[in-house]
Write a structure and sequence with these properties.
14 strands; alpha+beta; homodimer
Chain lengths: 349, 349
Amino acid sequence: MTAKKVRTIEELGEFGLIDHLTSGFTPSQKSTHLGVGDDAAVIDHGSYLQVVTTDMLLEGVHFDLVYTPLKHLGYKAVVVNLSDVYAMNAAPRQITVSVGISGKFTVEAMEEFYEGVKLACERFNVDLVGGDTSGSMTGLVISVTALGTVLKEEIGLRSGAKNNQLICVTGDLGASYMGLKILEREKKLHAEDPAFQPELVGYDYVLERFLKPELRVDVLLELKEAGVKPGAMIDISDGLSSELLHICKASECGCQVYDDRIPIADETKQVAEEFQMEPLVAALHGGEDYELLFTVPISDYDKVNAIAGVSVIGNITDQIGKALLVGNDGNAIGLQAQGWNAYSSEQDD
Amino acid sequence: MTAKKVRTIEELGEFGLIDHLTSGFTPSQKSTHLGVGDDAAVIDHGSYLQVVTTDMLLEGVHFDLVYTPLKHLGYKAVVVNLSDVYAMNAAPRQITVSVGISGKFTVEAMEEFYEGVKLACERFNVDLVGGDTSGSMTGLVISVTALGTVLKEEIGLRSGAKNNQLICVTGDLGASYMGLKILEREKKLHAEDPAFQPELVGYDYVLERFLKPELRVDVLLELKEAGVKPGAMIDISDGLSSELLHICKASECGCQVYDDRIPIADETKQVAEEFQMEPLVAALHGGEDYELLFTVPISDYDKVNAIAGVSVIGNITDQIGKALLVGNDGNAIGLQAQGWNAYSSEQDD
């Protein structure tokens, strides 16, 4: 019998839990440049910095093997980590991949998974240097850690946004979420009627965005070539809304973004219509876009505007913590974080 | 219908699987000094090296919450990784801790786990710099990555053993395995009769060795003070036998160890007797000792002999791949790897 209040993790909330559990930890190593709280931790190596990021992917929570080919899963498990490295404006160098494998997997199945890992390694010029392989009593468990390097003056933190800076986003948003919705729908129909054949034709774009996300290395290179140094930078994994709030919190600023500036592909709009869903909701809260969100000085407007695949969607304000979405009518509503993974978050995401 | 042979993971075996899956990966980064195949990967930072190691711990495979307090689990999850760092003769600096938490856990339970993590961080002067927290559909999933640094000339690899070097081991072996046996016995008795009260008094030493393993930082410091540079070094996580074979393979040598030289505590012998088990079997194959196994030049015999907690158990030979256990009678038998986790191994362990 105890009077001590026992709280569930849901009550505390995802970010609350992380803050709570890690609050008692104070870095003591000189080389620890930045701990919990950005896309990656940062380690000081003198003339350059090293970023470290890790992601855990659990079957039934982060992926569904019913509609996720293992090769795609291996590729994506690496890519979501590299996305955090690039979001620090760093170049990925090494990864470790750990897997817990349940009895249902054959060697061939794991080969497929590692083919995807290898594809990502080759594509982004990253070395697999270690990991851990063990049996799992339950589903497939994947944990990837990525290391990268960046010159000190080039690091892209969440905390670098300044008043009046422009807010930019790469590519388009919400497609991945609509791809997931299609796959979930076809899975459900198939479960109800085993003779049902999933109809995936015509959904290539949104499916590809979900199953095989791209990383915007091209834009990072173009920014560098144009001599543009981002202020704050973050990758969009939990949805635009959530990431804007992260930047506002870390940079102690506010922001306003214009709803008609938020890039959404026509394919995404069409699928959203099928689901009678507002495309903007998918863009704001869908997540898994793995596009980059960053700020630049207003004087760089012409330069970023000239880069294909970059949209200027708003600007940073001095109203601390206030993230506003401004509509066509000039009315503004406050943005709130609503990651679509009800309880799934990252300390360094 | 396919004629392709589908192999199960058991058929290939644990180390076979790792070799097989990672064989197609060739490091291309200049900074990758060493990839898969030692206690940790090694990254070159110019004047010093950085080691990277990662371990995944899965409920039901690596730990049983019936008899493992969460605080101990948090401590041990960190310590098993630091063990790999120390086994490279490196000093640990940073860790990331990722957890997948199923619905049955309260915030207080996770606080206990993180108290253990914190204890290990404080004790070994390591910073928690990141991680990932998510829900889990199944059991508790833990993945820890540790980073450490070491001067280039001081790195301790598995491949550093030379013919005629002495083989040394710290502390005593087999105790952790006997602690596990006690806990498993009491769990079984309790399951058969819920009124049964586990009887753990008198087993303090072996239980402590299993639940809260120590790391031999003391010995590493004394070796350094004595000016002894180990040839090969590895931590004993899968049992002495398995680790000796790792050294022989990596160093392209053989070894012979003397059964009466292998250090086994009296408490371990007593518990082994209770289970009608040969204590030497626990020492050779038990695992989870987290002691250090290393080689030194024969000229350093007096120096290592003077260090408390170091036993010289044999020597390296030039008979490649031949690991022999020599008995009192002078007869020798070949050592074989028999990790007690039937299917559980590590690419960088």
